[in-house]
Write a structure and sequence with these properties.
This protein has helices at residues 32-41, 74-84, 102-115, 140-148, 154-159, 168-174, 187-196, and strands at 6-11, 26-27, 30-31, 46-51, 63-65, 89-94, 119-124, 127-136, 163-166. By secondary structure, the chain is an alpha/beta fold. Strand 2 (26-27) and strand 3 form a beta hairpin. It binds guanosine-5'-triphosphate. Keywords: Cytoplasm, GTP-binding, Magnesium, Metal-binding, Molybdenum cofactor biosynthesis, Nucleotide-binding, Transferase.
Length: 201
């Protein structure tokens, strides 16, 4: 079993705020999902897309799965991805996140190799950033327990695991404006992001 061979991309949400399916976001004429998978396939051997629409990915070279425990939000997607993952640790990202930071991924891998936690997640004030983070197969049981008792909050579940929290100040060295944790929830946010990024995006 590899330590860091896998990445999980969550694409099984309701997209209610966006008003159309966020796994179909187009940014400057390009599919955001294609951009994410292109970048992550350079870093990970195995990409696992956890989706609520298998048809979209009929011809995809990646591993395409659905939630096993449905309707539980991101934690349900993380659970399905970890169960399918062939690695000890899996990088978890979301289909609506437009900025990937490979340097930050490398730093997390180095920290995990030294500290050997069950998860590695950035903390921001009293919040955590559940994506752009690493989770491990060793958490599956705890996640199942949490989901089984009706719990959906990722942070509550992480508190019960041996989680290494990356402090804000450290994460900001890689992403001063916090862009690497940004996700697009509404059409307005989408329009603003397109306006803000340069022509080469
Ligand atoms: N596999 C899976 N992914 C999910 C689920 N819920 C949310 N996600 C993903 O998690 C990320 C963040 O989702 P949110 O924006 O919090 O929720 P959403 O349901 O997509 O959007 P809203 O309906 O506007 O809240 C997105 O990539 C979603 O596709 C779920 O139940 N299963």
């Amino acid at each position: 079993m590899k330590d860091f061979g896998s990445a999980i991309i969550l694409a099984g949400g309701k997209s209610l705020r966006m008003g159309f399916d966020k796994q179909k976001i187009i940014l400057r004429n390009n599919s955001l999902m294609d951009r994410i998978t292109d970048i992550l396939s350079g870093e990970f051997d195995e990409l696992i897309l956890v989706t609520n629409d298998l048809d979209i990915y009929k011809d995809s070279p990646y591993t395409i799965i659905e939630d096993e425990i449905k309707g539980m939000g991101p934690l349900g997607g993380i659970h399905a991805g970890l169960k399918r993952s062939s690695s000890r640790y899996s990088f978890v990202f979301a289909c609506d996140m437009p900025v990937l930071n490979i340097g930050y991924i490398h730093m997390m891998k180095e920290m995990i190799a030294i500290i050997k936690p069950q998860a590695c997640v950035a903390r921001y004030k009293e919040w955590i950033e559940p994506f752009n983070a690493f989770y491990s197969a060793s958490q599956i049981e705890e996640i199942e327990k949490h989901l089984g008792s009706g719990g959906r909050a990722v942070y509550d579940c992480l508190k019960k695991c041996n989680t290494f929290f990356i402090e804000e100040e450290v994460a900001r060295r890689f992403s001063p404006d916090w862009d690497m944790f940004y996700n697009l929830n509404t059409r307005e946010e989408l329009a603003c992001f397109v306006e803000r990024v340069n022509q080469n995006y």
